[in-house]
Design brief:
Arc Repressor Mutant, subunit A, 2 domains, single chain, six-stranded parallel sheet
Length: 220
């Protein structure tokens, strides 16, 4: 099992490498701390398995998944992240990656279990992922039921604190249309101020901006 580790926290990356090599006998053939380096290493080494942090300083982890799959369609991917927002988990579901390990709720032994499960051709999804998915599916007001794909795209930009004219420029629409999108999203989500809407977007994973308390490894 040839593995590449992509994780922006150097100490955490070193811990994963040590455990994978010393404790479990895997072959770690490459590492990266940002998206650009990750793509270079993955395409050069062509590993069997990618351990991928979804939130990197220069690139969305889902962009990496989309890019490498075009060249390495058989690459197995396990997401390792502290992000548990509904939109992040929804994107994990749609990306059809092979495993999801929650930094906040799982141990290093869970990572081993995930690698073994995925290497055997099965999927590994942490209990927190399964619980969040079940909760979202049972919620008639969840974003995936009330917002269109276009509205989700606008919400990503709102989460980055862009103004209506900035959103209009990004999406090649008018300022009035951008404002209409903002109000429609607020009404559908029953959120009645822009600051609260931005907070929602960050908390649920519509943007890579970290919420307070996010970002630190929590393996025990």
């Amino acid at each position: 099992m040839r593995i590449v580790i992509v994780e922006d926290h150097q100490m955490f990356r070193e811990v994963i490498r040590k455990v994978c090599v010393s404790d479990y006998g895997y072959d770690v053939v490459g590492e990266a701390g940002d998206g650009a380096e990750a793509l270079r290493v993955i395409l050069a080494e062509q590993p069997d398995l990618l351990l991928l942090d979804l939130h990197l300083p220069d690139m969305d982890g889902f962009t990496i998944i989309e890019t490498v799959r075009k060249i390495l369609p058989d690459l197995r991917i396990i997401a390792i992240t502290s992000a548990r927002g509904d939109y992040t988990l929804y994107r994990v579901e749609r990306a059809e990656i092979h495993g999801f390990v929650d930094k906040n709720a799982n141990s290093l032994e869970s990572l081993h279990e995930a690698i073994e499960t995925v290497s055997a051709g099965k999927r590994y999804l942490s209990p927190s992922y399964e619980a969040a998915k079940a909760k979202r599916l049972s919620n008639p007001s969840s974003f995936d039921k009330v917002l269109t794909e276009r509205e989700r795209m606008v919400l990503v930009l709102i989460g980055e604190s862009l103004s209506d004219d900035e959103i209009a420029e990004k999406l090649s629409i008018t300022d009035k249309t951008a404002a209409t999108f903002r109000h429609r999203i607020m009404n559908k989500l029953r959120i009645h101020s822009t600051p609260k809407l931005i907070r929602f977007a960050i908390d649920q994973g519509f943007t890579q901006v970290s919420a307070p308390g996010d970002g630190g490894p929590a393996f025990s």
